[in-house]
Amino acid sequence: MPKTIRELADELKVSKQTIQYHYQRLPAKNRQKDSQGTNIISPTAEKIISDKVAKPLVAKNQQTGSKKVTKTSKENNDLVATLRREVEDLKAQRDKQLATKDQQISSKDRQIDHLTKLIDQQQQLQLTTVAENKQLKDRVQKLGGLFETSKPPQNRQENNKREDLNKNRIDKAWWHFW
């Protein structure tokens, strides 16, 4: 089906002037006009023009593409190198932080060991003190018993009388009458 210059230009994504240029250079037998005098491109002419327009575009795109690829490859290589350096820096920072943390942990372990020893010592001292206190209480009781038995009986009787008087006074206190 025949096409207009504009339709072919849109299809090939080139300017209308490019199609017009190639159309005018076609042999006369391949150029046609419709009843209104508009240039019509036959399928044969379309093939010829497409080949002429497409080849330079492909070559141009290949050149541009290779330049883009080269430029993109260089940019990618730079980017990859930058990212690798950043990764190495981050790894170094991580290793440094881990080493610091390891030192802190070992320091805390030493502190815990020291405090555990101090607690053990304190508990041993406390047990020793309790045992000594018990021994002292036992001695005081023994000495108290010896002291009581060594008092003359008269003193014991006086102490008992005093205790009885104190009880009587408490029993006869005024508040007991109410």
Model description:
The protein is mainly alpha-helical. The protein folds into two domains: 5-141; 142-172. Helix content is 81%, strand content 3%. Strands 1-2 form a two-stranded antiparallel ribbon. A hairpin with a 5-residue loop joins β1 and β2. α1 (5-12) packs across α2. It starts with a helix and ends in a 7-residue tail after the last helix. The model has no long low-confidence stretch (mean pLDDT 81).
Keywords for this entry:
mainly alpha; two-stranded antiparallel sheet; 178 residues
Strand order, sheet with most strands: 1-2
Number of extended strands: 2
In the residues, how many domains can be counted?
A: 2
C-alpha geometry: rod-shaped
Fraction of residues in helices?
over 70%
The share of residues in extended strands comes to: under 5%
Order of helices and strands: HHEEHH
Report on the biggest sheet: 2 strands, antiparallel
The average pLDDT is: 81
Q: What is the CA-atom radius of gyration, in angstroms?
A: 58 Å
Derived structural class: mainly alpha
Coiled coil: 73-100
Domain Regulator of chromosome segregation-like C-terminal: 102-142
Protein name: DUF536 domain-containing protein
Keywords: Coiled coil
